[in-house]
Amino acid sequence: MEQFRGTTILSVRRGNTVVIGGDGQVSMGNTVMKGNARKVRRLYKDQVIAGFAGGTADAFTLFERFEAQLEKHQGNLVRAAVELAKDWRTDRALRRLEALLAVADKTASLVITGNGDVIEPEKGIANEKTSNLIAAII
């Protein structure tokens, strides 16, 4: 059976203001199954925003785990991301999840990869041609 996949999440930061958006498209192979999926969520008392690309069911699992880490660490984005990454790498069930999270608050923007890596783009730049832009495409 083919994997359901998301396609694009985009985060733009300017100073203390950040926005994350997604295309809303869920595909199965080359077929668009849904065009209005909600790929971006507000977390931890609306202080953190997170978006996903990749397997939809996998992403919901990661949202739940990430939000639990945010609660545990009182909204500390970096600490919660690192702890999620540790879980992701050591938990057998999580290791098989195929998703990527883009997360941000007023101070930081991070990408948490399917390998359990936490990446804070230098100067908020992840695309060499566009300033202040993070693009995650799967």
TrEMBL record:
GO cellular component terms given for this protein = HslUV protease complex; proteasome core complex
Question: Which superkingdom heads the taxonomic lineage of this protein's source?
Answer: Bacteria
The protein's matches in InterPro entries, at most eight in alphabetical order, are given as: ATP-dep_Prtase_HsIV_su, Ntn_hydrolases_N, Proteasome_sua/b, Proteasome_suB-type
Pfam families the UniProt entry points to: Proteasome
GO:BP terms for this protein? Answer: proteolysis involved in protein catabolic process
Task: List where in the cell it is found.
Answer: Cytoplasm
Which molecular function term from Gene Ontology is one that the record holds?
metal ion binding
- Entry EC number(s): 3.4.25.2
Listed A to Z, the keywords are: Allosteric enzyme, Cytoplasm, Hydrolase, Metal-binding, Protease, Sodium, Threonine protease
PROSITE patterns named among the record's database cross-references: PROTEASOME_BETA_2 (PS51476)
Q: Does the keyword Metal-binding apply?
A: yes
Q: Which SUPFAM superfamilies match?
A: N-terminal nucleophile aminohydrolases (Ntn hydrolases) (SSF56235)
What family is this protein classified in? Belongs to the peptidase T1B family. HslV subfamily.
PANTHER family reported in the protein's UniProt record: ATP-DEPENDENT PROTEASE SUBUNIT HSLV, METALLOPROTEASE TLDD
Name of the protein in its database record: ATP-dependent protease subunit HslV
Tell me the name of the encoding gene.
hslV
